[in-house]
UniProtKB/TrEMBL annotation:
Residues 1-28 form the signal peptide. PANTHER family: LECITHIN-CHOLESTEROL ACYLTRANSFERASE-RELATED. The keyword Ubl conjugation does not apply. This is Phospholipid--sterol O-acyltransferase. InterPro entries: AB_hydrolase_fold, LACT/PDAT_acylTrfase. One of its GO terms (molecular function) is O-acyltransferase activity. Gene3D superfamilies: alpha/beta hydrolase (3.40.50.1820). The keyword Transcription does not apply. SUPFAM superfamilies: alpha/beta-Hydrolases.
Length: 557
């Protein structure tokens, strides 16, 4: 997920490194199909949650504000309009929680091209703070990949997978992008998917099975996809999605948590990254299709015996621990007006109920059914869960992902960061949407579980902790794709990484050259030379790339 206050994801640096290694180490014998001519390769980027710009597709006059929304105006993310016209901005972002249609007064659509994923809020100050893929694209170009070979495939990250196809024909367009890239460059593509983008790519692979003949499926994949880079993939879901659903998560934006909750719960995609059990699966839509069964029937959700013998659905602990009030219905989440008119002395007192829910009980809807009398969002979310996920005609995304049939797969994620794995919720006494408060948080930290207060917590901690957003249990699911043959590579620190990359590719610009004081000359003698230019203030600044005959001619043309 993207946050204004978070630095550039470090695993994208590792992804760029692996891309370079792949380009230098692959040969025709690998089955690449493009020989050693890497100019034939294309790079397809599928961004993550909230990592694509959204632009207005309608006009909206904002009362009490000099700023209005016009077609093609930036919506996600324009912090200026968010601060000055928040109600208008919310209308352009909001979707109907039942049918995923736009607000009657405003609608937004994803931008296109690389500019849609480089910086969410371009600007002198906001640009670097909202940078997503900008540096990564710059690294790829420095490594020698042509700029026009890098193709971004933005999407409306608010929608469920079926709505992406129904409204925007996204998966049809993605298939055409792969085929067009192959025709233009003559070789397969490298797929880079980050965060929710991995879920999107998984759905595309399943959708593709139903679009082309079975005998041509593997041929199509081998022809159009050489490698898949799964970057920070929430393969078994993300725990932070639960927090966003119940109490709201602002991601550094200047809005209240209640407003963030209202907005997030209007998106069907908020359920796409819900945690789920690795022991529970659904009927295979591909098998149902060719056996003559309806593609539009409800998929059966069934679990292995191991799910009921083990604790916590394989996760370190129960994900939700919630205290339900003794009263039900509207009284459990009154409005502000109702609170001011209520005579508290006449209310009956009762003991609250403490319930805990595992990943399975979240994914199968048990949690939402249990809380539908205490929270108005529970009914809407359960409806969307049944319609868009359990009833999806292509795939139930809330099931474990088997290894995709792609030749080369790189699973890249961060570890050993303090990551949230469980929450304790209680009624806040405030009106909806602020009716829940987090009373405690369970973290995984390098193989141990701790509460927010610092106390050690019992559970089933993993061998490591996650990347601060997704727990290790979910990130590391891809290890099951290769059985016992798993290569684990730890990335070096940044200073060593840059030195390693430079050693691999050699200097490409004057800034890569520097003065070697041990040898009293410019380093990289085969690439760099000492050439003073008026204004240089130190020896390293005078080290520049050697002039080739072609470069010399450019000075005279």
């Amino acid at each position: 997920m993207t946050a204004l206050s978070r630095p550039h994801p470090p695993h994208l640096i590792v992804a760029a490194t692996l891309l370079l290694v792949l380009l230098q180490g692959s040969t025709a014998a690998d089955g690449g199909g493009f020989g050693a001519d890497y100019s034939k390769l294309s790079v397809i980027i599928i961004p993550g949650f909230a990592s694509t710009q959204l632009r207005a597709w309608s006009m909206l006059n904002c009362a009490y504000s000099p700023l209005n929304f016009n077609p093609l105006d930036l919506v996600w993310l324009d912090t200026t309009k968010l601060l000055s016209a928040v109600n208008c901005w919310l209308k352009c972002m909001w979707l109907d929680p039942y049918n995923q249609t736009d607000h009657p007064e405003c609608k937004s659509r994803p931008d296109s091209g690389l500019s849609a994923i480089t910086e969410l809020d371009p600007g002198y100050i906001t640009g670097p703070l909202s940078s997503v893929w900008k540096d990564w694209i710059k690294w790829c170009i420095e490594f020698g990949i042509e700029a026009n070979a890098i193709i971004a495939v933005p999407y409306d990250w608010r929608l469920s997978p079926s709505m992406l196809e129904e409204r925007d024909l996204y998966f049809h367009r993605l298939k055409l992008i792969f085929e067009t890239a192959h025709k233009l460059r003559g070789g397969p593509s490298l797929v880079f998917a980050h965060s929710l983008g991995n879920n999107v790519f998984r759905y595309f692979l399943e959708w593709l099975k139903l679009e082309i003949a079975p005998k041509q499926y593997m041929q199509w994949l081998d022809k159009h996809i050489h490698a898949y880079f799964a970057v920070g993939a929430p393969l078994l879901g993300s725990i932070e999605t639960v927090k966003a659903t119940l109490s709201g998560q602002t991601f550094g934006l200047p809005i209240s948590e209640g407003t963030a909750r209202l907005l997030s719960n209007s998106f069907a995609s908020s359920l796409w990254m819900m945690p789920f059990s690795k022991y529970c699966r659904a009927d295979n839509a591909y098998t149902k299709h060719f056996s003559g069964m309806s593609r539009h029937g409800h998929q059966t959700y069934h679990c292995e015996d191991q799910e009921f013998r083990s604790k916590f659905s394989g996760f370190p602990t129960n994900i939700i621990n919630i205290e339900l009030p003794s009263i039900r219905g509207l009284e459990a989440y009154p409005s502000v007006a109702e609170i001011t008119q209520t005579n508290l002395s006449t209310m009956e007192c009762g003991l609250p109920t403490q319930l805990s829910f595992s990943a399975r009980e979240i994914a199968d809807g048990t949690f939402f059914k249990a809380t539908e009398d205490y929270d108005p969002d529970s009914k809407r979310l359960f409806y969307q869960l049944e319609k868009s996920y359990h009833g999806d005609p292509v795939l139930n995304p809330l099931t474990p992902w088997d290894r995709p049939p792609i030749k080369n797969i790189f699973c890249i994620y961060g570890i050993d960061s303090k990551t949230e794995v469980g929450y304790y919720f209680a009624p806040s006494g405030k009106p909806y949407p602020d009716n829940w408060i987090i009373t405690d948080i369970i973290f995984e930290v390098e193989g141990s579980l701790f509460s927010r207060s610092g106390d050690l917590v019992e559970g089933n901690p993993g061998a490591a902790s996650g990347d601060e957003t997704v727990p290790y249990h979910s990130l590391s699911w891809c290890k099951n794709w290769l059985g016992s043959r798993v290569n684990i590579t730890r990335a070096p620190q940044q200073s060593l990484l840059i030195r390693y990359l430079t050693a691999k590719r050699g200097p490409l610009r004057d800034e890569d050259c520097y003065w070697d004081y041990g040898k009293a000359r410019c380093a990289w003698a085969e690439y760099c030379e000492y050439r003073y230019v008026f204004g240089d203030v130190h020896l390293g600044q005078s080290c520049r790339l050697r002039n080739s005959s072609a470069q010399m001619m450019l000075h005279y043309l």
